Amino acid sequence: MKSALYEREPPDSPVWWNAYVRATIAFPERDRSKLSELREEIARGPMLQGVVPNLDAVDRLIEYFEQPYAVAYGKGFNACH
Fold it and tell me: Mean pLDDT per 10-residue run, the chain (81 residues)?
C-alpha cells in the first residue's frame, strides 16, 4: 500500500489520495486513532460532484473497525448494487 502514495501529491488534486491511502493502511495496523485523524483530514478536503471523495470508504473502515477489511470495504460496494 505504501507504494501507492504520491511522493508529491498535487496541491490542486480533487482527491486527497495520500490521506486515503494512509487511512487504509491504518485499518489493518489497528490504529484507530490514526484512522480517525485521517478521516478528519479527508473530511476537510475538496468536494467532487457534491461529495468528499473516499470519505464514505473511510467512514466504513471506522464503523467496521473490528471486522476484516473485506467486510468493511464490501459494505459500501454491496450497498451500491
Answer: 87 92 96 98 94 95 93 65 32
